């Protein structure tokens, strides 16, 4: 019929065309409204995952669209606060169960239409990275947060840097650790962290006459702490000073948060051969120095199972070149102290044959803290068990370790040879 057939006498468009035009306008309006409403609708955070331990953690939050993220630090307690504009937090509560370095997780809505996620740490921590990334399959976005145990000094430096900038930090283009880089610490004193092995539900080894390892290690560690503190030149801390259970990674976390220059883990094991006795000093290595060292490391590394904790081996640190270099330097210092310590103990207490050994002890794996594990003796040997309960013997052994610490600290300060 053509367009002419759709016009009236005045040349105006007739009813059918007007109807089609109205329909098209309505469809366009509805399409525009749909897009506008989708843009105004809140984002949804639909998933939350945490992985890691008490030294390093990764948190991942899933979103259906790209979130607008602002975050900042608070102390008292140490917290990471994440504000998410126009976001609904549709996260399963069971996924928020705290673990590792994260002591608590809270979330909720603010009056300003912003949702807030709060992560409370087990003491101070560093935010190594906080990124918003598009999912590879194109279905949404994720926020990935990497946290690691840090010292109060490092946390305070990050707070100070935060106050000098905007008071809060936007996640975009934030690839590095929070703060201004390495923090100088001119007032730092040589710091020793003493780790009494086992504790709480994990009693450790049991002697021929009923002596429990966790009690021996705590008594000796307390005496060693007092001797080191009496020198007046060190800051000395203990991973535990009561009969409490600690995960192995929590022991490492405590050493790192105190910026320890040395971690000394105290143990008193048993062995099937009753005639073997004497003290031994262990350092960490990927390959055990001998089968006995490997067996001991296997037993000690299982201590987390006493509280039903899942043990996961995470060697991703080792693949990082910088961390690997730090570990090598730390291992050199650990070996140096172990050598010095064996020399000092040999003048006061009995040592096992080949007293300096190595194995893959998890408690010694802090990449930046020189660490040794001291087996004071074997509770499976009656003479060693009696010595471990003898105050005079403990005093001599503690003094030998104190002397070794003095030599090592002097060498680290550049004023001695370190043995």
For the structure shown, list the relevant keywords.
six-stranded mixed beta sheet, 419 residues, elongated, Immunoglobulin-like, alpha/beta, Aminopeptidase, 9 helices, five-stranded mixed beta sheet
Spans of at least 5 consecutive residues with low confidence: 1-7, 27-38, 169-182, 309-322
Q: Class by helix and strand content?
A: alpha/beta
If you consult CATH, what is the topology of the largest domain? Aminopeptidase
Shape, per Cα inertia axes: elongated
Q: How far is it from the N-terminal to the C-terminal residue, by CA? A: 108 Å
| Spatial ordering of strands, largest sheet | 12-11-13-16-14-15
Mean pLDDT: 81
Please write the CATH class name of the largest domain. Alpha Beta
User: How many extended strands?
Assistant: 16
* Oligomeric state as shown: single chain
Largest β-sheet summary: 6 strands, mixed
Structure annotation, total helices:
9
**What number of domains?**
2
CATH architecture tag of the largest domain: 3-Layer(aba) Sandwich
Order of helices and strands: HEEEEEEEEEHEEHEHEEHHHEEHH
- Share of helical residues: 25-40%
The Rg value, from CA coordinates, equals 30 Å
β-strand percent reads: 25-35%
CATH superfamily (homologous) name of the largest domain: Zn-dependent exopeptidases
């Amino acid at each position: 019929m053509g367009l002419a057939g759709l016009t009236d006498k005045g040349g105006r468009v007739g009813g059918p065309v007007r109807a089609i035009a109205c329909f098209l306008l309505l469809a366009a309006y509805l399409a525009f409204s749909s897009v506008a409403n989708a843009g105004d609708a809140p984002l949804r955070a639909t998933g939350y995952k945490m992985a890691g331990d008490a030294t390093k953690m990764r948190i991942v939050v899933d979103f259906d669209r790209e979130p607008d993220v602002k975050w900042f630090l608070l102390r008292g307690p140490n917290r990471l606060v994440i504000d998410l504009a126009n976001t609904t937090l549709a996260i399963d509560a069971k996924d928020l169960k705290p673990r590792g370095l994260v002591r608590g997780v809270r979330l909720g809505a603010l009056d300003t239409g912003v949702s807030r996620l709060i992560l409370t740490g087990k003491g101070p921590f560093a935010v190594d990275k906080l990124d918003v990334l598009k999912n590879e399959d194109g279905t949404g976005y994720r926020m990935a947060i990497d946290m690691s145990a840090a010292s109060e000094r490092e946390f305070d430096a990050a707070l100070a840097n935060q106050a000098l900038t905007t008071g809060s930090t936007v996640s975009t283009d934030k690839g590095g650790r929070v703060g201004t880089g390495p923090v100088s610490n001119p007032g730092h004193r040589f710091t020793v962290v003493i780790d009494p092995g086992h504790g709480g539900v994990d009693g450790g080894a049991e002697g021929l006459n009923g002596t429990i390892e966790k009690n021996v290690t705590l008594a000796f560690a307390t005496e060693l702490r007092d001797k080191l503190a009496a020198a007046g030149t060190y800051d000395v801390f203990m991973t535990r000073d009561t009969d409490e259970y600690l995960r192995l990674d929590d022991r490492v976390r405590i050493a790192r948060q105190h910026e320890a220059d040395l971690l000394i883990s105290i143990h008193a094991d048993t062995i099937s051969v009753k005639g073997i006795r004497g003290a031994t000093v262990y350092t960490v290595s990927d390959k055990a120095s001998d089968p006995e060292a490997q067996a001991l490391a296997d037993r000690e590394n299982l201590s987390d199972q006493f509280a039903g904790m899942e043990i996961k081996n995470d060697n991703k640190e080792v693949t990082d070149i910088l961390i690997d270099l730090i570990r090598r330097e730390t291992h050199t210092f650990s070996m140096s102290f172990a050598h010095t310590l064996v020399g000092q103990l040999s003048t006061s207490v009995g040592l096992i044959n080949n007293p300096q050994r190595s194995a893959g002890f998890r408690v010694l794996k802090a990449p930046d803290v020189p660490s040794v594990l001291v087996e004071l003796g074997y509770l499976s040997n009656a003479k060693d068990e009696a010595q471990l309960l003898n105050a005079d013997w403990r005093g001599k052994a503690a003094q030998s370790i104190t002397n070794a610490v003095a030599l090592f600290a002097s060498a680290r300060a550049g004023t001695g040879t370190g043995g």
